[in-house]
Amino acid sequence: MIAAAIIAAEVGFWVLLAGGLAARYLLGQPRLGAALLIAVPAVDVALLAVTAADLARGASADWTHGLAAIYLGVSVVFGPSVIRAADRRAARRLGRPAPAPARPSSAERLAAQWRLWGRAVLAAGLAAAILGALVAVGGPADTRALWSGGGWFAQLALVAGAWLVLGPAWTAAAQRLTQPMRREGTR
User: Fold this and answer.
1) Domain count, the chain
2) Would you state the pLDDT for residue 182?
3) How far apart are CA 119 and CA 167, in angstroms?
4) Which of 49, 90, 137, 176 is the most buried (most CB within 10 A)?
5) Residue 135 and residue 146: Cα distance in Å, rounded?
6) Short-list 42, 44, 65, CA closest to 136
7) Residue 87 is part of which domain span?
8) What is the distance between the alpha carbons of residues 137 and 161, in angstroms, rounded to a whole number?
9) 186, part of any domain
10) Rounded Cα–Cα distance for residues 70 and 76 (Å)
11) How far apart are CA 129 and CA 123, in angstroms?
């Protein structure tokens, strides 16, 4: 049941996003478009309610409950930026003409990587808080799959650590390696 709710939430996200952009730029209905885009977080609330209700009625937690918490954390933290980026792209292609964004400098790319990693840490923290709330709702005995042996909490830490290494640390190292070598004595 929870797996189906996660799939429905993902489909709902993209349907509301596409509908909002289509209403705004293809149908010329900016208010309807804005209403559909504002409704996107309701999908997250519905998924949280379904997941908590499932545990509250006595279901034993399995991997899908943990996945729902991860989905919620990622959706809440990264969803608004996905919507803004899609809106900018749709505006450029379907609405008002605008120049393509300028290519960022290496310093801007590194700063963007640090911001993305910060969002990943925030998403992991939010997902961990949701997992903790689900454990409280379902009780420790029925939610053992969420927390025993590190479970989802350890995976969140692993993903945040991997993102640090493969995101900002990798970008910083690549920038250092590709900078022209300066010879001593030359100006």
Assistant:
1) 1
2) 46
3) 12
4) 90
5) 7
6) 65
7) 2-98+105-178
8) 29
9) no
10) 10
11) 10
Q: Give the pLDDT confidence score for residue 101 in this predicted structure.
A: 74
pLDDT at residue 98 in the model: 65
The better pLDDT of the pair 41, 148 is held by 41
184 in a structural domain: no
187 is a domain residue: no
Share of the chain above pLDDT 90, in %: 53
First-to-last C-alpha distance (Å) of the chain: 67
Phi, psi values for residue 97, rounded to 5°: -70, 135
CB atoms within 10 A of CB 183: 6
Residue 39 is assigned to a structural domain of this protein? yes
Residue 139 banded pLDDT, cuts 50, 70, 90: confident
Type of residue found at 61: A
Read off the pTM: 0.81
